[in-house]
Inverse folding.
């Protein structure tokens, strides 16, 4: 049998780094630490080596389709499949950013939603029976949902929404944001929040699609790590990165053949309702 393998995107620092650390301790297989910058990635690996943990490094930039294809081919060749995929890579503009909202909406949704979805589409064919997929979302997705119009609330919580519908809605948000018309059209005034609404709903759709295909116990969940002190939060968060890793790692290590949680939004290791 091929060696088991876990892949964590955007994991040279912050929550991703802590997820790799925890998986190295608790997952029976290889753990791939990935980063856009090979120098930063190899430094992160050597930091964990000092703790007697042994992740492997592979370059990955989810904003570069060819980079995603390269890691897929590497996994196929060296492992013949994939057992855990943690989609942690993401970006957020600082509150003090002077970048126009039009740019923030475009850039944030591109990485956090569209290119995360693309990475899934490239890597999902490698998922073995009993694989676990964790899409790192945010509590801000729930807040953003609450700020949307009733029409969009209903669409984002529709159990039958398709991936095509979801991508066209997120694209519409970005298009309207170019002229600052997104709020009057019924979207929340947060590019990060809207990108994470996309991630949460995407996860629910992915589970449904996998079940429909008859996949053998492949489980996808979105999760909120909590308010963690990282570069992304300007270190204002109240949790350490290891505390922030707890819920994503819980989702990554869910036991075989579970009925729940599947296709859910998880906070503090519990299912959190996704409703308007």
């Amino acid at each position: 049998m091929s060696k088991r393998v876990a892949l964590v995107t955007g994991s040279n620092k912050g929550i991703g780094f802590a997820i790799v650390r925890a998986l190295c301790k608790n997952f029976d297989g290889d753990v791939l630490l990935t980063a856009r910058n090979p120098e930063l990635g190899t430094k992160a690996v050597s930091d964990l080596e000092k703790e007697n943990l042994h992740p492997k490094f592979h370059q990955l930039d989810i904003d570069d389709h060819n980079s995603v294809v390269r890691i897929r081919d590497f996994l196929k060749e060296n492992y013949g499949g994939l057992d855990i995929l943690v989609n942690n890579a993401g970006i957020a503009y600082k509150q003090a950013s002077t970048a126009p909202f039009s740019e923030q909406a475009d850039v944030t949704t591109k990485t956090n939603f569209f290119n995360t979805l693309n990475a899934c589409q490239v890597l999902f064919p490698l998922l073995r029976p009993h694989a676990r997929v964790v899409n790192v979302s945010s509590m801000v997705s729930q807040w953003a949902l609450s700020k949307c119009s009733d029409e969009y609330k209903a669409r984002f919580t529709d159990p039958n929404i398709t991936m095509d519908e979801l991508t066209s809605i997120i694209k519409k948000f970005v298009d309207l944001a170019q002229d600052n018309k997104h709020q009057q059209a019924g979207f929340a005034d947060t590019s990060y929040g809207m990108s994470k609404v996309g991630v949460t709903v995407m996860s629910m759709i992915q589970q449904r699609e996998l079940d429909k295909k008859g996949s053998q116990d492949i489980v996808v969940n979105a999760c909120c790590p909590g308010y963690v002190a990282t570069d992304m939060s300007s270190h204002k968060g109240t949790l350490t990165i290891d505390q922030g890793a707890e819920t994503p790692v819980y989702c990554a290590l869910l036991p075989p053949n579970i009925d729940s949680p599947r296709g859910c939004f998880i906070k503090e290791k519990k299912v959190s309702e996704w409703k308007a």
User: Anything to note?
Assistant: The first strand starts at residue 5 and ends at 8.
